[in-house]
Design goal:
This protein has 60 residues and is mainly alpha-helical. Helices cover 87% and strands 0% of the residues. α1 crosses α2.
Length: 60
């Protein structure tokens, strides 16, 4: 994986995470927001990894 792909993956994960937290942020409690952020980051990392390898498989 070259550095451009790594940076793009980090950006995509950040965007997914922010959208996830924004859509779920009806809560005022910081612990719940932190939990949502971590869950969103994990989900986004998994989704980004799957998409990356799927695109890499299709392109080759």
């Amino acid at each position: 994986m070259n550095p451009t792909d790594i940076l793009l993956s980090i950006a995509i994960v950040g965007i997914y995470t922010m959208i996830y937290v924004y859509l779920k942020s009806r809560f005022k409690n910081d612990k719940i927001r932190l939990k949502l952020f971590v869950l969103g980051f994990i989900y986004a990392t998994i989704i980004t990894g799957i998409l990356y390898y799927l695109i890499k498989f299709i392109a080759s």
